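request received
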Amino acid sequence: MIDFSLTEEQKKTLELAREFTATEIRPVALEYDRDGTYPEEILKKAKELGLMYTNIPVEYGGSGMDHVTHYIVTEALNYECCAIGQMIGISHLGTGAILLGGTEEQKKRLLGRMTESYRSACFCLTEPGAGSDAGAIQTTAVRKGDRYVINGSKCYITNGKYADLLCLFATIDKSKGTRGICCFAIPRDTPGIQVGRVEDKMGHRALNVSELFFEDVEVGEENLIGEEGQGFKLAMMALDRGRVNVTSVCTGVAQKALDEALRWAKEREQFGEPIGNFQGIHFMLADMNALIMASRAMYLQVAWMLDQGIRCSTEAAAAKCFASDAAMKVTTDAVQIQAGSGYMKGSVVEKLMRDVKLTQIFEGTNQINRIVSGRGLLRERSILF
Ligand SMILES: Cc1cc2nc3c(=O)[nH]c(=O)nc-3n(C[C@H](O)[C@H](O)[C@H](O)COP(=O)(O)OP(=O)(O)OC[C@H]3O[C@@H](n4cnc5c(N)ncnc54)[C@H](O)[C@@H]3O)c2cc1C
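response:
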């Protein structure tokens, strides 16, 4: 039986997330966007309310939600501002590899410590010469007895300046390609980590993104996640989950854009009547809503697959492409419906349109995600039932 109704507990959690977004994020969304503010106080409150580490099991300090609930909450938290919403949820990607490949002892020690603070984690894969071609990373880890010494640099790292826990990918043997890549969990206070340029971005302006430099950073083997050479696989598995996350983020942003467009269509009058009376506007609104319905159904499907333990790389990549392209179209049409007023700085829909562009670029560009999804289909057809 297919059932979209929520349990009483899910309803309460969703209500909490919606109220938090309306009272804490909405009033500052435009101001934080203008100034590129790190949303420190909002993060503290989100953590206090259990809205920050929603995907992390209770025994490691999180709220222990299943994937379906976690992504429904993610949609709600990203409705008013996806930059702030994603700062709240960044541990989802930053801890993905640790949750998937870490031992019980590592999860308790590393995630237990991280969840005591609101500064969360970051995911350090991309380098200046290795974006889409993530397997070409040059950051090295050299084994010395029971320790590793790490040298290299990373770029475009979300929460790079603030994260307490860094999930870092480095190679122990470049000649092995992706099979030489290892995953390390590194506490921020480890000597040798330096923050470089903090990026000034088109959108997602309250999302902290920076360079990171690693100079003779030493970590013990107890901080190697999984086996040597398993890092690339763990990164890709973490990105599967990250792509579902992006799908729910896009759904939240697109819903906000549609709601703004609907409000305007009812209020704005031309030719002596509300523009919402015109069929040309109906067509746009109907298409926007259809794209949002499909995006929501996609993240719910893939979240359900994750909860059932079903492999979902093909579907997660497809959902991420669809929802980000959909949100780009929906936010662009919201600007179209608000026209001159929507195009101006300080309008909500102008911000949403700038914000959404990133979702077609990060967690693998949509070109790369189409490759992942297409190759996946050639291995195995994607049929839900
Ligand atoms: C704001 C922001 C936050 C980010 N946060 C993080 C983070 O937290 N952690 C992290 O590790 N990374 C992060 N990234 C990095 C992001 O994942 C990369 O930017 C992305 O993977 C693309 O890499 P690139 O920018 O180097 O583009 P490139 O790889 O140089 O790609 C340029 C263009 O070529 C296309 N292209 C490349 N290869 C192919 C191919 N084989 N077939 C078809 N087209 C291709 C791409 O789709 C793109 O259109 C972030 C990026 C941004 C902008």
